[in-house]
Write a structure and sequence with these properties.
Length: 24
């Protein structure tokens, strides 16, 4: 399983979600 590769793809997405969540 390429977990690190998956995390590298999801990292910007999670960062955007957290940023939007904090902006509420």
């Amino acid at each position: 399983m390429r977990l690190m590769s998956l995390l590298e793809v999801l990292d910007p997405v999670l960062a955007a979600i957290i940023y939007l969540w904090l902006a509420i």
